[in-house]
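thread: overnight batch results

M.L. [08:02]
morning all. the overnight job finished for the chain we discussed friday. pasting input first so we're all looking at the same thing
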Amino acid sequence: MPSSYKFREDLIANGRIAPSRKWDKYFETTENTVCGSPSAAAEIVLGRSANGFVEWQTAEGHPLRDFIDGPQSGPTRTWLVRGSNVAGFDLVQRLWRPDGLVSLAAGHLREAEPGISKAELRTFVDEDYESTLTYNQRLQLVEELHAFLSKMKPGDTVCTISQGLVYVGEIIGDAEQVASDGGRSNLRRPVEWIAEGHPYEDLPEELQQKLSIQHDVVDLTAVAGLVAGLGRTDEELEEEARESPEDVSAEIAVLARRELELPEPTVELAEDLLVHNVDWLREVRDLLWDERQLVFYGPPGTGKTYLALKLAEFFGGGPQQVKLVQFHPSYSYEDFFEGFRPIEDPQTREVAFRITDGPLRELADLAAREGNRRIPHFLVIDEINRANLAKVFGELYFLLEYRNKSVRLTYSGNDFALPSNLFVIGTMNTADRSIALVDAAMRRRFAFVELSTRAEPTRGLLRRWLAREDHDTEPADLLDALNSRIDDPDFLIGPSYLMKKGVYRDGGLERTWRTKILPLLEEHHYGEGLNVGQRYGLPALRTAIKPPADDAPVPE
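M.L. [08:03]
and the structure it wrote out:
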């Protein structure tokens, strides 16, 4: 903030903030300094833009906003309030829609004024519900009651679900606490409901994710545009945006409903990747679009990782939308998604365990940010079959199949859904573990695409590369002869070993064959007593592709 920055610089120039004599590379105040707002004070301390109601916290971690009385100000919000199964009653049909209200059950809560601070409300709930709710249940109740009493305000949008339909309305008044039968609806707000409901199954996937969160009150502001567009066509929304340019809700709804697209593969991409035709790339794109998860599998050296990264960069629009993860036998859920890890405090040098995000959580949060939701993001998992997948994915296995749902996370306890614009491409080396050993749960959640020397685009890849690089075709002939002698298709040798510049220096082919290819085959035939060099060595293969003349000596 320019004003806060200037104030901070003036304080330093006037000596009211000076280098600390106790903390190296830190400043300290030399006198009391009055700021115009909590945010201005936080920005001076942190040296960046900051929300003071969140940044200022007690030693227990409670933010300043918890101690502020009165209704919350700011832009309008969108909320979900559940009322279809409250103590066995469907309040939506019996009370909310006929009487024009929304309610929340709080039968044991003493009288609480609208706009009550979260700190005071926490005290009320701890005392009033001590014998009826567990500690975690009381924490959740505080969040829901505070949202209903202090965060909601007239002008906010509210949604609810009943009998497979989603109903939308607008809050038109303040909260009040009344007596009700069994305390099922004693906290109330007046609402003007739209009569028409919207079938749940027809809602956008991103909205279904939020509506599946199992709380009585959920903040839906992140998908407010999707809610605003329910029941209206794109043409109606665009016309409304033109007629009322000062009201951005219609424009936001149009942008929110814009379809995510994966770009059409091009001839140039096929030529760059040396793929035999564009139709194969289109099929890969369609599989990604339909399944969201795909695995390239095949023998070593078939270009699985290279192809996965290149396609991810093309479909995502650049490398900044792609994250690579390497699986291994000791990889775990805590490494992949989130878990407690030791973190050192830079000031005290003390070590404490804190919940830390893994690569999937980081990429999912990036993809879900405002402005990123219509941009494809890709997670490439190399050697996906080398880890214990059930252990690594945990409850996320469910989300791979049901992208329109949310789950409660193991460590943080937050509700989480995989963004619709997050795609996963895995690679699987069949020489390490046959695809037949992959469990049914993974098979059901991923599309499998084979990259093998038996079929295109891998079969002719080396010959296309040799032609582009203006090399002789002998390496391709030798590779074909080699693979014709290997009985197990999972151990066929891919062309990437022979698609490197070092192979075509003096002695490079022989060196690569001796140090890269033959060791793989020795491992494959370990314990069989087979002379690998005699069967798969270059002299034997050269003889096979070009038999010697009758008077020429036969190589041993």
